[in-house]
Structures are given as structure tokens and as C-alpha cells.
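User: Design a sequence. Structure:
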């Protein structure tokens, strides 16, 4: 039995496919679901004013939280929200360790060739480094 599932979500159009696929799985009511979203860290060379509140980051956080709450309301069972900042693959793996996840469910953007080399693949990195099984949901 799966005790804890980490559902790794982002702001892409593929997130709805991941949610829909997840809802089709037969999950036990006792399974804990962690809805996780990683906000990528700002680029290191990006100028950030230290004397002003970072309203754009706060607004982004609030938007992500609101979206995750809507997904959470649509899912049955015990669920928790996790919104973190950092490298997406590293943070998903870190959250899987913290919550002792039995399964990670993540979407794939379907990148191939040069685009995959240049942009990298979060799902591939998670599959390679995760402490548990990973279910990758492909785009339509």
C-alpha cells in the first residue's frame, strides 16, 4: 500500500493532465497526498532590490497557493501543500525524502533532442535520483 504520494506540479498546461491521470488511479483513502510546487530560484545575475518588498514573488506565491488549493479541494483524502523555491528536480527529491514518499507523480513536457539538452529534463533527473518509484505522466 502506498502511504505517501508526492504529486509534483508546475504552472504548465500539462499540470491538468497530471491531475486528471492521478484522479484515475485507485488511491486508498488513508494515503497521504503532498501537492508540491517548486518556484524556480531567480537567476543569479538578476538584480533584486533589497530595500523593497518583493511583491512579484509574493503575488506568484499566492497564485500558486490558490491553484494548489483548488486541486486539493478536488482530490479525496488527506492532502498537504508544499510550495518551495529552488531547483525543481532537487527540491522534488528533497521533499520526497522529507515526507518519506512511496511514489512521486510528475509530468513530462515531452522534450526531445536539442531542446531536452538545452533546457534539461526535470522528470528525467527525478527518475534518476528519487528515493522511491516515480510515475511520469506524458503529455497527450
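Assistant: Done.
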Amino acid at each position: 500500500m502506498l502511504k505517501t504520494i508526492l504529486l509534483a506540479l508546475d504552472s504548465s498546461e500539462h499540470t491538468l493532465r497530471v491531475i486528471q491521470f492521478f484522479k484515475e488511479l485507485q488511491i486508498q483513502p488513508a494515503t497521504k497526498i503532498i501537492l508540491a510546487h517548486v518556484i524556480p530560484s531567480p537567476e543569479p545575475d538578476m538584480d533584486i532590490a533589497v530595500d523593497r518588498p518583493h511583491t512579484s514573488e509574493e503575488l506568484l506565491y499566492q497564485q500558486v497557493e490558490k491553484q494548489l488549493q483548488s486541486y486539493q479541494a478536488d482530490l479525496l483524502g488527506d492532502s498537504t501543500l508544499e510550495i518551495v523555491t529552488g531547483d525543481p528536480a532537487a527540491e522534488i527529491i528533497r521533499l520526497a525524502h522529507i515526507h518519506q514518499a512511496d511514489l512521486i507523480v510528475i509530468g513530462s513536457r515531452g522534450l526531445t533532442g536539442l531542446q531536452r539538452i538545452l533546457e534539461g529534463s526535470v522528470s528525467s533527473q527525478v527518475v534518476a535520483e528519487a528515493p522511491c518509484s516515480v510515475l511520469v505522466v506524458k503529455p497527450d
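The chain is about 40% helix and 25% strand. The radius of gyration is 16 Å.
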